[in-house]
Structure formats: structure tokens, C-alpha cells
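Aim 2, interim progress: modelling of the phosphoenolpyruvate-bound target.
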Amino acid sequence: MTDHVQGIGVPPATTRGDEGVETVLSGLAVSGGIAIGPLHPIDTGQFGIPEYDLAVRDVETETARFDTAIVRAQREVRVLRRKQRNMPAGAAEELGYILDAYMQMLSGSRLVRGARARIESKRQNAEAAMRDEMDQIARSFEAIADSYLAARAEDVREVGWRVIRILTEDRRNPFTTIPKGAILVAESFSPADTARMDPRKVAGFASVLGGAQGHTAILARSLGLPAILGVSDMSRYAETGVSAILDGMEGRLILNPTPDTLRRFKERAQELTKERRRLAALRDKPAQTVDGETISLAANVDLPGEADVARVAGADGIGLLRTEFMFMNRDSIPDEAAQVEQLSDIVAKMEGRPVTIRTIDLGGEKMAEALGDTLDGATNPALGLRAIRLSLKKPKLLEAQLCAILRAGAVGPVRVLLPMVTTPGEVRQVREAMKKMAKRLKRRGVPFADPLPPLGVMIEVPGAALAADALAKVSDFFAIGTNDLTMYTLAIDRADEQVAHLYNPLHPAVLRLIEFAVQAALRARIPVSVCGEIAGDPFYTALLLGLGVRDLSMSAPSLPKVKQRIRALELSAAEARARMVMESTDTGRIKILLDDLNPMNG
Ligand code: PEP
Ligand code: MG
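Predicted structure of the complex, ligand included:
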């Protein structure tokens, strides 16, 4: 999945002829619920340059906007400069000269001065001012028949367009102009894009690309947004304003529904609301099996607002706080103070319930522009500089984050969780860093968690699961990440719709790794939880409990359903069934064994 929303393009005019004709498209059902509303294609494709006269009172703000764009353009050129250093010598030298020229042009040259003067004296908006100044300078170079000056004209245009693009992108953040209640459609939504969707405004979304276990799908579930992904033929039909129904349970996008279809889905949506209310009544009931075993149900939180949802759902704590989302959709990395503020806020909201804060899991499909080109160019991003590997490569990043977590630990109980660990050495390094940061905070006289918080690891790489006994010796707890564990074990990209049908946590290889990791934790007497998506799916509850898991962490909206399943479950039956499952090598039979134990409605 790409890191940007891509336009799905304007459909051919002939599809307008379909107006009024009900059309059903299918895709992967990744987030339940029903959305009814107009389609709103998100398109960051080609666009014209806005052009208007400024009011006198707006000149100052516009100049500041222009200056900010220049600073951003300079930063972009610096990033290119770093990339260029890794190129073969000849090419690096050539590009080096060009980038130096760009940098000079962006540092108070005639281009920048001229454009700013147009804003101030001619009261042109920044984009138009830059375009006119760029055209004037480039044309004056082009007028002289000289190849050197012709090349300079090209440079001026390159720099000018870079600044215009930055200015216009700001203005056209496609997520700020969404009509309330719309169903968003696009070629692809990255996790960072999804994090920008406001569930109070967006009714649901559908895209051509994306798998059911990718972070875009996970966020949709956390935000409670109905979503379907992998809708292959959508680009032919999606047009602004077309009335639509998105069925997140069955994976259908119904365009131009007939009055009868609309009525049926409205009824279904009402039933779902009633069902949600009924489940919400379980909030204060214990998550206890029929034979009296209490299970801890915590929430996975990606965005700060979800802490409130976790509280409303009655979560026992936060079992996985994905801090990487704090680093997305922003120009710069949040400093220690900004991180402390966000984390402390979440910890305070949980009122004494433990918050498991995972260090950044950036890389793979989760990208953060603020990291510049650090993560660019990997052949296999999911196997590259991701998660703990990135944190250990960038000690300043890790140290700031550890300080922030320790400081948030002064507000309430926290645990530190490391993503994508493969060896005990990685845990040792972080433990050392944590001790060093504690000393530093002590010297600074800043309150922080005392004693130091437990340090745990995600078991989400097959190698980590198979070496779980070694990792248990250096870790205070395990959190089993079945999303990545399934992906890496079966070599199936969790975010790729083309192989989504092969993604299966019930594969005996995955189940054996889960069992092995749970057993290693139980032997070492350290807590073990499951925080992958199967923890929030009642279909898997009996199996996980039967395998010895007593802590589950899931997106908050899934909590009531899982609690309902636990309250109807006999642990002894679950254990017996888990044994039968583990003796089976056939995925189909395993599914039947679980279907047979689970009630019809999940
Ligand atoms: C997992 O891999 O199962 C997990 C919980 O982590 P994430 O989904 O953030 O990769
Ligand atoms: Mg993971």
C-alpha cells in the first residue's frame, strides 16, 4: 500500500448512464457496520493553481505561509542531498551541483524575494506570486540562446513548482473538505490517511487496494468506521455525490440503491444499533467464564481519542498503545515534551489502569514523513529498518521516547513494549537505555516512574516465537502480535488484497508458534497477552483461552462481543477443544472444530 491517497480518477462519461441503476460491487469486509451516504472520491491528482487578490489584512498571514513553504522546500532539498550522497560518484557530483543551485535559489534569491514582493505589493496569493515570478525569470533566461542559461531556466521552474506544490498541498488536504456523512473512496488509503479521518464526519470508506489485516483496516475497526477494501472495479463507478450503501459486514458497496434496498439496509442499521446498545450493557459485568475464570480485556489504542472509547467500553487498561501514529501526518518529530503531554493525557484518562506503551513501530506500511528519507528505498520494507530496529539505529529517537514514557509513568502505571524484537540483545540494549534515561531524568529533577516500568516484547516474528524461552529470560512480559506473526510465518503481506484469501491465523504453523510462546511465558512465570486482531474476534476466544491465554487486547469496539463470548464459555471445554485443534494439521478441520464449539452468532 502506498503512503499517499491516490485518486481513482474521473470515470468515463458513459457510467453516468448508470445513474439510478443499482450496482453492487464487492470487496473484503474489513470493518463492520453499515454506512449510507453520498460517495466522495478522494483525489490528489492534477489541479490548477488558485489565483486571487489578497485583502490588505491578509498580506501578513500569506507572507508567513509563503515563508513556511520555503522552509519546507529547503528541507526537501536537504533530504535529496542526503540521498544523493549514496549515489555513484559521477551522478552524485552532478546532482550535488544542481541541489546546491536549488538551495541557493531557496535562500533569499531573486526568485524568493520577487515572489514575496508580489505578495506584499501586488497582493497576489502565494501560489500565483511564485508562478508569475518563476515564469518571468525563466523566460528572461530562455530569451538568450545559451544552453547554460536554458538549464538555469529549468532549475528556476523546478524550484518554483516545488514551492507551489507545497503551498497547494497544504490548501488541498483532501480530508478537510469532506461533506458530513460521506462514504470516502480512493485507490488506496494509507494508515496515515486513515488516521486523518474524523468518524464524526466520515460515514465509511472503500478502496481498490488493501488487505483485511493491514493497519488501514485495523484503524477502521478502532474508529468504528464501516469499511471494505480490495474493491477491484470501483474506479469505473465512483463519482462524487452518487448515493451509496456500504455494508462492512458482507463487503458490499451498493451504488444507486433502489428505495427497497435502502429501506432494508436502514432497518439492518437500526438492528445493529440495538445490538450495540445491548452489548454496551455488559460494560460493568465481569469478563468471567462459566466456570469462574476471569479474563483481562484491554484495548488497543492508535489515536489519542480512542482512550475515551476504551474507557466507555470498560477496558481493564490499554494493552497496546501504537505510538507510531503520534509521528504521522506532521512535518517534524514530536519532541520529548510533546510526547510526554500526549502520553500523560492517555495515562491519566485510564485512571490507574495499566497502559502498555509500545515504542514506535514505523516502517513497513506505517510511514512518517517527519523521518525524512530514513525509511525510503528498502527492497522489502516489512523486513527492513522497521520498529525496534529503527529505534536502536536512532538512539536520540529512542531516548526521547523512553524519557517520555518514563515521565508519563509518573501519572499512572505504564509498561514498555518493544515491537518486532528478534533477539535478547535488543531487549538488553533498551533496558540499558531505559536505566540511563532514568538517571538523566533524576538529574533533571523531573518526576518519572519509580520503580522502572516492566519491559516486554511483542512476539510477532516466527524467530521470536521459536526463541521465546530465551526472550522470556530478559523480558518482563510478552504480547503476542498475531497480525505480523501470521504475515511473517506464511509470507503473506497482511495489507495486500491479492493474497488476502491466503492469510489465515488458523494455519497450524501459526498456532504452534502461539502455543510455544504462551508455554514459554507460563514456564517463566511472566504475563502473556494476545494483542493481534484475533484477540478481538469472538471466533478465536475459546481457542486462545484454551491455549492458556488470560489477557486479551483488542480495538475497543470489539470488547463487548468478546466479553459476551467469554461469559458463555466453559474454560474446561475450551481447553479440551484447543488440544484437539493442536493435534490437527488441517486448517479446514481446525475451523470446523472451532465452528462446532462456537455459538452460531459468534
Ligand atoms: C501485530 O502484529 O499483531 C500487532 C498487534 O502489531 P501491529 O498490528 O501494530 O503490527
Ligand atoms: Mg505487529
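The chain has a mean pLDDT of 90. The first helix runs from residue 59 to 84.
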